[in-house]
Amino acid sequence: MTEKAQYDVIGQRYARMKENAAFCVADSHTLLDALRACGDLRGKPALDVACGHGDIARLLAGRGASPVIGVDVSAEMVRLARALEHREPRGIRYLVADAAELPVLGRFAVATASYLFNYAPTRAVKRAMFAAIRANLAPDGTLLAIVPNTGPFLEEAHGAAGARLVERVPGGEAPLMRMEFLSDPPVPFAYYEWQRADYEQAAREAGFGNVRWQSTRTPPPDERWNAAFWEDYQRAPRSSLLICR
Ligand SMILES: C[S@@+](CC[C@H](N)C(=O)[O-])C[C@H]1O[C@@H](n2cnc3c(N)ncnc32)[C@H](O)[C@@H]1O
Q1: Which residues does ligand 1 sit against, CB inside 6 Å?
Q2: Which CATH architecture has domain 6-149+195-244?
Q3: Residue 152: what pLDDT?
Q4: How does DSSP classify residue 170?
């Protein structure tokens, strides 16, 4: 199975994993904080690339962005996103498309790409993804991209982290990370281990003039994840947010 097609199989199980993984909750807080800094989104067009089942597209719509378009290479993820939209409409349109070959769908004020760029197998594909998204942004538009961090924490089978590393396969332009979502049963998936500098370089080569990282935000402690848990998480967050203008 190609890396592109893997989410056709993962489908619903990914949606369930997201609800129970601490890093996903932290990601939402980080993204929301960055979206607030983008100003009032009401009535402004927003694009969510690699939308999966539509979590972030719905978050954009919840902040009043309109229209909101979600795109994903997986027909199954788009089917799930459309089914949720049908049950609980937010006015979001979903399309199946490869981010590296994304046509111009509009001039968006904001684009989000959460765990997209780590699926680029080569630098050329990564650059093409950034360039296609940039072509979809208004001149003052912003891309918010969540990417996985690298580090020894990947070796830990940490339930709240949602996933664990099975095998790191060297070769190609970046090692292939064979991972497993810690769902029941576990679900395998794979992505490429790029470094922060690789993402920055691709963004700059695609024409973004202002590229910077925002630190991870975490939610207030509760009975599920206490203050000590989040302090620990802040020392080795699973992901980073890249802001490109
Ligand atoms: C880990 S999921 C993230 C989904 C969603 N962004 C989120 O954060 O919940 C990765 C998604 O990227 C999609 N994807 C992978 N390669 C892609 C590509 N070349 N173009 C568009 N989507 C892609 C997958 O189909 C999958 O839905």
Answers
A1: 4, 7, 18, 50-52, 55-56, 72-74, 77, 98-100, 114-116, 119
A2: 3-Layer(aba) Sandwich (3.40)
A3: 72
A4: -
